[in-house]
Design brief:
About 35% of the residues lie in helices and about 25% in strands. By secondary structure, the chain is of the alpha+beta class. Strands 17-20-21-22-23-26-28-27 form an eight-stranded mixed sheet, sandwiched between helices. Strands 1-4-5-11-10-7 form a six-stranded mixed sheet, with no helix packed on it. A five-stranded antiparallel sheet has the order 2-3-6-9-8, with no helix packed on it. A hairpin with a 2-residue loop joins strand 18 and strand 19 (about 400).
Length: about 625
């Protein structure tokens, strides 16, 4: 049970003594929590992101102890009189924070403590699992499109680093802890596939109603016989003076111990074995060991069900079974198994930004997740080239590398041809629009007027058979930008006058997750600074959608769209409608935006050498 505390008192045991580590809040929003002693998590002690705390280390042995400094998180007190004190600033860090305590005089490490930094969003753990599972599933589809073989044996490399081990475990854990996986197991147990099987039993001869050829042979040859009297021997061969007491008869019985149910048990055992192997590796971190133990316990709960006790382990696997491929519950476990087989081999350098050093950066994961969802949405309106999608994965020996890293540009190209017009589309992740030097014809090239800008996503559209560079030169291209903002709870884009009071409380509202102007101004910066930009929009996991048109057409414009993990089908409706309107707008040769770009290109294509002053 998680209990809120006014302060935390954390004992840290060393070889010969014990110190006390105290944490105090600096404001009313800086909450502190402690789990009870029955807690099995990596840490009993919890802080909250975006808050500041003071701490103090005390001891009875006369020595002074201090926490090891962590950039932007743990800072020491400046005064020499308070060498055992300091400040913890959680910032945007979410996850397990591992802290070392050292002796100030000898610099020797005294001990370690793990503290869990909780997100202000109560659903962040659910979102984390949902998005991680979606990304793994998307990459699995790409791998299968490339014809990669799906093996049925998993081996963990004992030389893998702790970072790589946790990365692979995180993908697998997201599968096991998903609601879909648990629901599939429940459906199988409540409505399993049953088959008839032949079984042989010994039955008394007077209870057998139908005799087979095998039974007739047993009557003449079986031991443990009963002598027949003269009255019973009438009509029988003279040599048959006795009959066996029992004979073996065949009958059909209903059983759940069949190949399909054996496969389900095999999957659960394989998942458990994989987690156990990772936990026992020498490079496994404490966090990995604790979380793997919890995952194994979850799998054991399924395996200890009476249903699986009646099912044996398979001698071979029949992956082509119609039941596995079609029946509800079995189909989901088969998909999870194929996904697990690939996810266990995944190597994602971009994942370092998500869960490196114990953190769970859900905001960065939200940014990655939205890339795939936007790509999926754009593919519904434009023919995206398959080779560009397949470039998101490559193979290296027995590893599958995922090529999506924050800060490195990825581009997917496509087009759509109709009777009226051909539209080219390029979808970018983290494209940088740099400032073009004044002596390099900046007006006719892609870039920013002022400083370099890097939106999270950029959708570029242009007509005809010309290249993107030529479209920039002729002012025919249109850029629409999107930024992912996971920590936004609420956004207001109302047409109200900005008073002095609003500006004074703006910072406090941002800390509470309510952004009125800061993000909207950033969208203005994208639109005004990046040449040939027609729109800039925020994507956040909230509840409100708002699109503000500059004029009466869909672009130019600014706004925000709510996209929540786990609610994609529902939340994407507004965004899907917006993309459809943008596509229709680009196909319209008589739009006001098209006329404006034509005259703008005509006016600014050459510098006016003359100046008239009257």
């Amino acid at each position: 049970m998680l209990q809120e505390k006014k302060h935390l008192k954390i004992p840290i045991k060393g070889k010969c003594s014990e110190i006390k580590f105290y944490i105090y809040p600096e404001s009313s929003k800086a909450k502190l929590y402690e789990e009870d002693l029955s807690c099995t998590n990596a840490s009993r002690y919890h802080l909250v992101e975006g808050c500041s705390y003071t701490y103090e280390c005390t001891s009875d042995d006369g020595n002074i102890y201090q926490l090891e400094a962590i950039e932007e998180i743990i800072t020491h007190h400046r005064s020499e009189r308070h060498k055992n004190e300091g400040r913890i600033t959680t910032g945007i860090y979410v996850g397990t924070l591992s802290i070392s305590v050292f002796n100030v005089a000898t610099k020797e490490i005294f001990g370690n403590i793990d503290i869990e930094i909780r997100s202000t969003k109560s659903e962040y753990e659910t979102d984390y699992r949902q998005m991680l599972g979606d990304i793994a599933e998307y990459y699995t589809d790409l791998v299968l499109q490339q014809g990669a073989p799906v093996t049925q044996r998993l081996e963990s490399n004992a030389q893998s680093s702790a970072k790589t081990l946790y990365q692979r475990f995180a993908f697998v854990k997201s599968l096991i802890e998903s609601d879909a996986f648990s629901e599939a197991i429940h459906k199988i147990i409540s409505n399993p596939i049953r088959k008839w099987t032949d079984s042989n039993i010994q039955r008394k001869i007077d209870g057998v109603k139908r005799f087979t050829r095998k039974n007739i042979k047993e009557i003449a040859s079986n031991n443990n016989r009963i002598n027949l009297t003269e009255s019973y021997r009438r009509g029988m061969p003279s040599c048959l003076t006795s009959i066996p007491r029992t004979i073996e008869v065949e009958y059909k019985k209903d059983t759940i111990d069949n190949q399909e149910n054996q496969f389900i048990k095999f999957v659960l055992r394989s998942l458990s074995t994989f987690c156990w192997d990772l936990k026992e590796m020498k490079n496994a971190s404490n966090r990995l060991k604790v979380e793997a133990e919890a995952t194994i316990e979850l799998l054991n709960i399924h395996l200890e069900n009476q249903f699986f006790r009646q099912v044996s382990m398979p001698t071979h696997l029949n992956m082509n079974s119609p039941v596995l491929q079609r029946k509800e519950g079995y189909r989901e476990i088969l998909q999870s198994w194929l996904l697990f087989d690939l996810a266990a081999k995944l190597n994602w350098n971009g994942g370092d930004n998500v869960y490196n050093a114990g953190k769970k950066n859900v905001a960065t994961l939200y940014e990655y997740w939205l890339f795939f969802k936007l790509l999926e949405l754009i593919s519904q309106f434009f023919d995206i080239q398959a080779k560009d999608k397949l470039q998101l994965v490559n193979f290296d020996s027995d590893k599958i590398n995922l090529n999506l890293i924050q800060g490195k540009t990825r581009m997917v190209y496509g087009q759509q041809e109709t009777l009226s017009r051909k539209i080219n589309v390029a979808f970018y992740y983290n494209r940088t629009f740099s400032k073009v030097a004044d002596d390099n014809d900046p007006i006719h090239k892609a870039g920013s007027w002022t400083m370099a800008m890097r939106p999270d996503y950029t959708l570029s559209l242009w007509p005809g058979e010309i290249s993107e560079i030529e479209a920039e030169k002729q002012d025919l291209i249109t850029h629409i930008h999107f930024d992912a903002k996971y920590r936004l709870n609420k956004i207001t884009l109302e047409d109200t006058n900005c008073e002095d009071e609003d500006l004074l409380v703006e910072k406090e509202e941002q800390e509470s997750g309510i952004y009125k102007r800061a993000d909207l101004l950033k969208m203005h910066a994208y639109k005004d600074a990046i040449r040939r930009t027609s729109g800039a929009y925020i994507l956040y996991p909230g509840t409100m959608n708002k699109s503000i048109k500059g004029f009466h057409e869909v672009v130019p414009g600014l706004g925000a769209f709510s996209i929540r993990p786990g609610h994609w089908e529902e939340d994407s409706i507004s965004l899907k409608q917006f993309i459809a309107e943008v596509k229709a707008h680009m196909l319209d040769r008589t739009s006001q935006r098209e006329k404006n770009s034509y005259y703008q290109h005509y006016l600014y294509k050459e510098e006016n050498p003359t100046m008239v002053m009257e």
